[in-house]
Amino acid sequence: MNYETLTSKINDNIAYITLNRPECLNSFDLKLGEELYQELRDISEKKEIRAIIIKGSGKGFCGGGDVKEMHSAKNKSQFLRDLTRAIHKCVIEIRTMEKPVIAAINGAAFGAGLSLAIACDIIIAVKNVKMGTAFIGIGLAPGCGTQFFTSIVGYQKACEYILTSKIFTVEEAEKLGIVNIIVEKDELDSTVEKFASKFRKLPPIAIGKAKMLINQSLKNDMITHLELESITAAYSAGTDDFKEGVTAFIEKRKPQFKGK
User: Domains in the chain, ordered, with CATH?
Assistant: First the structure.
């Protein structure tokens, strides 16, 4: 499908989505929100796709919501309601799809752009890139990301960074537990590909269920979650991938998982 605000391709079972509004740091307008959600939905339904990589074109990953559109909107409250809902649909799709999603942070990630990044499962970022929640700096209550941010960094740190609209580097983000890996600019693609190659070989059903369990663990009580783990393990034990995995273990060879 052809899009106005992003490009997408599939290579060897990995989907690559690039936000493509470089003239405004790939900031979210309604069109980008709608198109990104549609592409994520389409990809989530393709069993052959093992993982998704999201990055930005040009100098930034995503600068947040399009402030120029906010300024020109006649009904600003309704515009922000519509825009945040569009972004939320993308975030929900990323978190609920049973496929790993990697954010490749090539440049600035602010506001909803940071929210999009921390909704992803793994974040790989270029050195010295700047990040920030940004909303407060333009007089706007956060429209996305406060729950994820707080769950990662803790209450006091969340207040420090969100309430003061503090800008920080990826080096600081790594210490806070937000970023997984920091790389040189020319190493971003190759490092992302190393992760992609892992997901091409690992069992996709088991990975999808593991991601689900990680997300459910954030809200379940211990007894409920232990039962869910038992049910999920039993489900995965009925797959061909599990049969292949244990057979390969016994035969002392590398397994060939097929996602069945």
Answer: 6-200 (3.90.226.10), 203-251 (1.10.12)
